[in-house]
Amino acid sequence: MERAVPHAVPLGQIEVFQALQRLHMTIFSQSVSPCGKFLAAGNNYGQIAVFSLSAALSSEAKEESKKPVVTFQAHDGPVYCMVSTDRHLLSAGDGEVKAWLWAEILKKGCKELWRRQPPYRTSLEVPEINALLLVPKENSLILAGGDCQLHTMDLETGTFTRALRGHTDYIHCLALRERSPEVLSGGEDGTVRLWDLRSAQEVQTIEVYKHEECSRPHNGRWIGCLATDSDWMVCGGGPALTLWHLRSSTPTTVFPMRAPQKHVTFYQDLVLTAAGNSCRVDVFTNLGYRAFSLSF
Amino acid sequence: MSSESSKKRKPKVIRSDGAPSEGKRNRSDTEQEGKYYSEEAEVDLRDPGRDYELYKYTCQELQRLMAEIQDLKSRGGKDVAVEIEDRRIQSCVHFMTLKKLNRLAHIRLKKGRDQTHEAKQKVDAYHLQLQNLLYEVMHLQKEITKCLEFKSKHEEIDLVSLEEFYKEAPPDISKAEVTMGDPHQQTLARLDWELEQRKRLAEKYRECLSNKEKILKEIEVKKEYLSSLQPRLNSIMQASLPVQEYLFMPFDQAHKQYETARHLPPPLYVLFVQATAYGQACDKTLSVAIEGSVDEAKALFKPPEDSQDDESDSDAEEEQTTKRRRPTLGVQLDDKRKEMLKRHPLSVMLDLKCKDDSVLHLTFYYLMNLNIMTVKAKVTTAAELITPISAGDLLSPDSVLSCLYPGDHGKKTPNPANQYQFDKVGILTLRDYVLDLGHPYLWVQKLGGLHFPKEQPQHTVIADHSLSASHMETTMKLLKTRVQSRLALHKQFASLEHGIVPVTSDCQYLFPAKVVSRLVKWVTIAHEDYMELHFTKDIVEAGLAEDTNLYYMALVERGTAKLQAAVVLNPGYSSIPPIFQLCLNWKGEKTNSNDDNIRAMESEVNVCYKELCGPRPSHQLLTNQLQRLCVLLDVYLETESHDDSVEGPKEFPQEKMCLRLFRGPSRMKPFKYNHPQGFFSHR
Fold it and tell me: In what ranges is there compositional bias, type Acidic residues (chain B) (predicted)?
């Protein structure tokens, strides 16, 4: 009647606390470095850990190679989203976005390059930033989150240029439609809205939950994930994961997934999607046919 | 020359008696009576040179005559014979001359030799004399050098220096006038002075010796006096006992204890000394006592003859009574085991008094053959405790001190050498005997100064005072906290079993005023049952569920929703927080694996426990956690989004004030309570 995991080291107060922390940790965001060798991950305690992908994926990888190269406290609240430019790592969580230099990040005691807080209307509670989107052509950053607005920030000057209002509940995710250029945002209110960046106006609203094919009322209306290919869009969350044709704003294919999807992306002609509660990454061709699943 | 060639010695011709020995030549001595012919004398007279000439002449004549004879013989004739005869006679005469010359030559030779011989002898005699004289000279020289080298004993004596001598010596000894000039006298004087001084010092020495004798005698006398004092002091002390008691100064008692302490084995002695010291210096609530039989302790060290006598007696008795019965192998092994696990007859008892008048009684034993110490614990409270069912293990002597330091479960012997001893008598582990013998915790060994380093097993481990002293304070504090936290839990469990979460007034601010969810059940579960639960797998895999922990199950209900919470209570409560794992049964079964909000609720209770600790010594942690759990259930149920497809109102109307219902990509509910504003927000 032996336990499966005998512990040689008696667990004192500190070890128990660390174990509990790890058990209740959620990783919300990740970003790959511009050189491709490092992966930064942000968790719900506000820490960012940088892993060396080259070491972990090499043939001589040991246990230590899978541990982070450096970990530091980036934010007071959770780090909900991260995105990388060619020199910086931008992380955002509780209300502000911070920038870090990739070159400096690997040294201990790294300090943020700058931090910015978009102008919020309410002062009672600091809204979180759920999504960051880089618009390379304008060299600007779009933030969206708890205050139901999309803010654009110019990366060179650091000023907030526009605030796009329209959503009635907080925004979960953003996607960039390159050709137009337009930004798509999906939110808790169940809508996907398209915004034109040049005119700063809302162009189109798609109320996903109103379409019978994809709505799943018992899950709610919220749109958790968005991905766009300029002509096509995939979105899901409370409603089922659906492929939409944007010009006609009609759902074409509903992917048969039970769990609410948290992440989706287009890859060449395939759609890759992951739900938060399972260990699978499902791969679909966009004809609605599930090709296969990658599993942890 | 023919005379030289014929060296044959002829006997001496003439002796002093005058008897001629030559036959051929007979020259009779007729010339004078009384006078004898000495050819030797003649030799001296004749001249050797002339004799030589004569010889040559004679030889020539002879040669001539022979030649003439030859001639005549060859010529022949009648008168030859007469001439030959004539010449023959002449030649005979010449022959006789030759013979004489020969004799003379010999005599001369002999004389010469004799003279040489004489001279040589004289020379030899002188030579000998010379040798003798030389030898004597040498001898004398040696003697002289010896005399010169002679060191008189007086030079080995270290005499005082000249100046001192002249200064100190009295004038009749120093005699400056005489000695200054004459070194010999000076030395004599100095020697005299030396002798004087030595005599004086010898006197002094004798005096000192006699003094010493006297003083020694005095010392003896005084010693006797002192030893006679001891029994008198004892009687005084006896008489003072009632006074001591009256004044609350139990010196005698302490003294008696120290007396008994002398018979303690070293680790118990170290513990006794350090604990008494600590108690006197830092902690008045600690009291130390020694229990057990001192006679038995003394008996352990008795010389073997006595015990052998006893043994033989008892053996004889035994033989008579049980002749046939031999102890079986099992009984023998059992006896050996008992022998190995034997305790020292004396034990040290520590009583720790806590603030609320509850006392922790610790009895420390020493196992002699195993060289380890064990402890038995008992908690007594001022008032009688009604033990709630779930609190059974909290204060049980077996587990109340478990894991005082992390990992110190006290079920295994800390001395690695014991394993070999156990193998001999077939003991698998000390765990089976722990109830009887007490627990061999590591901190107990440290308090007794015993240190067993893991890498090098040592043959003899000696009790070390410094090790004990360095651990005493921390251990005592930990013991006190342990007892108090256990007692607090005891009280809390009694309340929890009745469904009331006892939140003290100073922790009320952590929770909203109205909490609807109620605690319905609180029971203990076994370790194995905890491991079997389906929602506790994470904790088990993280290694946080060990068999030294205590496990409980709580049930919180509100309406149709039932929340099960499996609780792991670490013996190190409350520095190590209890760990909760939740399973909600409401519209399906939700656990942390399928509902992120359940995970968030667990996080609120497990990870954010520091807020719930309450005022020190944070005994309120568990109850606060339970109360928070009720609050979290309330929030969860009330903020559940309404499903439009289902008819009917929400089961739980929202009463809690929340700024936002969902936040972040994970759409968390607002579980954080803000005081004093009273609303809920997200972390």
Answer: 306-319
